[in-house]
Amino acid sequence: MTAFKSLSVAMFKGFFRERVALFFTFLMPLMFLVIFGLIFGSSSANKTKIDVVGDGPVITALDGTGTVEIQHVDSFDKAVQAVRNGDVPAAISVQGNKIQLRYAASDSVAAGTVQAIVGSVVDGTNLQASGKPPAITLDSQRVEDSSLTAIQFLTPGILSWGLATSAIFGSALTLVNWRKKQVLRRIRLAPVSTGTVISSRLLVTIGTSVLQAILFVAVAMTPVFGLKLAGQWWLALPLLVLGSLSFFSIGVLVGSIAKSEEAATGITNVIVLPMAFLSGTFFPLQNAPQWLQTVSEVLPLRHLNDAMVDVLVRGKGIEALGVPAAVLIGFTIVVGFAASRVFSWEDS
Fold first, then answer.
1. Are residues 69 and 26 in the same domain?
2. Fewer CB in 10 Å around end: N or C, the chain?
3. Could you read off the pLDDT of 2-41 as tens digits, one per residue?
């Protein structure tokens, strides 16, 4: 117990003395949270801007959808030029009953959105003008709480990515550095078991993850961003521990393979960045190719992201932890076993 406590305290002190490690562990992921939160946190920022020439019931109906931001301009030529320049995704001209829509196909998502909205509004206006009742009615409602904002879907993903980055980088660089300075060799000669060394480093990883989570949630809950936690938010704590175990096992594997800090940093970057994108950290994967979605299912970060959103945002209960917990534990066992097979106390 004394050896475990001494090693844990020494590792905590060593970690917090490294300014570079503190930056990449706390400040860099927090910067992403702040940037994405400011960009997507405002509902007005999510509206599609459209340049409009003229006025009438179609433009009034478009403005009433709440999904577009109308910008009146002097001439249609000027509006079309703004579309060509990429300043706005679309422009509309209203001359009596004739409506012209010009859009930029280079942005397929915005183009499809604008065509669908304008087409729907024009059809609705035509139906209203005909005086006939609609043959088919649509009852459309959102399934989430109306108070949900973009920050509530951004925070779990970026928090999980921050946990992965600090756990993998921290454990990998610690192992490589200790082997290079022959700290591991001295520990091996001392009356300290391998389990004590690994468990003390794991305690540092989990402790750092808890501090990261507290900092992230505290910043996201400020009035600037307005994060609101679901009722069973505490279920994120076991996920945080299981996720840290998975990422720690990856870091130990990288630290066992790499012979220098530069090599460990390079290998870790090759793992962390693609895993973040393939796990839906920064954007949803629903529109990705099926084979890419299948690949993402084997990544621990994907399951941690999904489970964090379920318990922090969607208000799901303990039943949401079953599959993610099983995947994270299985991943830890497999990768941890591989790391134990290639681990070495000294450079060969």
1. no
2. C
3. 777 887 887 777 777 777 777 777 787 788 888 877 777 6
